[in-house]
Design a protein that fits this description.
alpha/beta, eight-stranded mixed sheet, two-stranded antiparallel ribbon, 12 strands, 30% helix
């Protein structure tokens, strides 16, 4: 039995009754357990200040982020929200990008997406094209009210699978003045069609849907979600070069992090389902804000960026191909990542 007094739910026998007439708008922030130590895969810069922050997205999920601020910051500065790669955490590539851009005069945050890393959301390690797109807009919400941020100069940067998500977020949110997608994937395309569109048929998609639907039944029956596995380990001798590159980052000291799905046991196995049923960039031609797509010359993922770039209109769009660079070179190789050009792009399209 449960009683309701003045809109307050009373709990009996571990069951809670809620008053349907009580309507709340903003969800309260969840208290997250955030590490206080520097546990990134890259060294801390003495040119920036660092602190942990949290914010809530439109679905009521509390996100955890690292905020980087130039040590000599004064006045209101341009800001950039960074996330990715898909299956990574903010202690990996996104944090490196955020710190590097803070060194160049931006206030930045690198955030863990919903259900991953130190961010909230249950069950863990679930991906969603809708919620993850919202995560970027929630980051803009947060940055826009910071006292040292110019709310008219906010951009976003997505890496790998989050590059495509960043462009999708920018299509829907004109507050985002400029977007950079580095070494991007279109997660909806690769989920539905396979790499290089090799599985682009009704028969193969239906076979995948049937297998994943059966897995859902098993998961519910077993009371837990089966994990799909992170980067393959041990590495097969005949693995494609891009899989070897992933292994060299996620499974080695260079990029390994215990909270990263790619470094450990991966996403929940059925997370791919909504991406198969969702199509990014349907309205890409309507995106008026600036976009830069950066890819390595030798990246297996390069076709995602080039095909997406063809959908964009306007003279504020740029495709930058980095010579002699692979997909994973743009995760952490500062000799390859065109960080100065990225910073210049943001400053050009987010002017004072």
């Amino acid at each position: 039995m449960a009683l309701m007094l003045s809109g307050v739910a009373l709990t009996l026998n571990s069951q809670t009754m809620y008053n349907p007439n009580t309507i709340t708008s903003l969800a309260p922030a969840q208290e997250l357990s955030l590490t206080g130590e520097w546990d990134k895969v890259f060294p801390k810069s003495d040119k920036v200040n660092h602190r942990k922050v949290t914010f809530v997205n439109r679905y009521g999920i509390t996100l955890a982020a690292d905020m980087y601020t130039p040590v000599d910051a004064s006045g209101k500065l341009p800001a950039i929200a960074v996330s990715g790669p898909f299956g990574a955490v903010k202690e990996q590539s996104s944090g490196l990008y955020a710190q590097q851009l803070a060194e160049r005069g931006f206030i930045t945050i690198a955030f863990d997406p919903s259900f991953t890393g130190e961010s909230g959301g249950q069950p863990r390690r679930v991906a969603s094209p809708d919620i993850n797109t919202e995560d970027f807009s929630a980051a803009v919400d947060f940055l826009s009210v910071q006292p040292d941020v110019d709310p008219d100069r906010i951009g976003i940067l997505g890496i790998c699978g989050w590059g495509g998500i960043a462009i999708q977020a920018a299509i829907n949110d004109p507050r985002i003045k400029a977007t950079v997608a580095s070494t991007m994937y279109d997660m909806t395309r690769v989920s539905a069609n396979g790499y290089f569109d090799s599985d682009n048929s009704k028969e193969k998609r239906n076979a995948t849907r049937a297998a994943l639907a059966a897995q859902r039944t098993e998961d519910y029956k077993n009371g837990h979600y089966n994990r799909a596995g992170g980067v393959v380990d041990p590495l097969p001798d005949d693995a494609p070069q891009f899989v070897k590159d992933y292994y060299a980052y996620y499974k080695q000291p260079r990029g390994f992090h215990p909270r990263s799905g790619n470094s450990t046991d991966g996403w929940n196995g059925t997370s791919v389902l909504p991406f198969m049923n969702f199509k990014f960039f349907e309205y890409a031609g309507e995106l008026e804000r600036a976009v830069m797509i950066v890819h390595g010359e030798n990246a297996h993922s390069r076709y995602f960026g080039e095909d997406t770039f063809r959908l964009l209109h306007g003279d504020n769009k740029e495709l930058l191909i980095v010579a002699d660079a692979s997909h994973c070179d743009l995760y952490d190789n500062l000799d390859k990542i065109p960080m100065n050009q990225i910073a210049t792009f943001f400053l050009t399209w987010m002017p004072k």
